[in-house]
């Protein structure tokens, strides 16, 4: 199914008992199925919050890398992390290939975010440099009664 065909219910309209099996399955089996699905729903919610925390941390890494002109990716770190997660997956009886695919997806997103942060940082430095040059050359005009220079929201 394509993303545009999927519906994404919000929290208020989510029905944990929604199933195309309702009325087709023994009620006791349906009750057990819904109980297990409730646990899955809780795990999914936890995963979303864990990923949000992970991306908050990687955003800090992205700002640090941008500030110090470090590359967005770190192949040595990525290789070590993949090996580590494959080992953990095997210990947890999770398919290591799946764990690797999942981590590669996350790494790709993190690198994309780091590249965007670096681009924004460079653009901010360039704008600050242009403003400083304009001020030095006297090309910036001061209008009496006007507020001082604008401050960037990313400063």
Which helices and strands occur, and which strands form pairs?
Blueprint: H1 27-67, H2 75-91, H3 96-137
Helix pairs in contact: 1-3, 2-3
Written account of the structure:
By secondary structure, the chain is mostly helical. It has three helices and no strands. The protein has helices at 27-67, 75-91, 96-137.
State the shape. Answer: elongated
Mean pLDDT reading: 87
Distance between the termini: 43 Å
Low-confidence stretches: 1-5, 146-155
- Helix fraction, binned, reads 55-70%
Report the β-strand fraction as a percent range: under 5%
- The DSSP helix count reads 3
- What is the string of SSEs from the N terminus onward? HHH
List how many beta strands DSSP finds: 0
Query: What does the largest sheet look like?
Result: none
Secondary structural class: mainly alpha
Radius of gyration: 25 Å
Give short descriptive properties of this protein.
155 residues, mainly alpha, disordered C terminus
Short description:
This protein has 155 residues and is mainly α. It has helices at residues 27-67, 75-91, 96-137. Mean pLDDT is 87; it is low at 1-5 and 146-155.
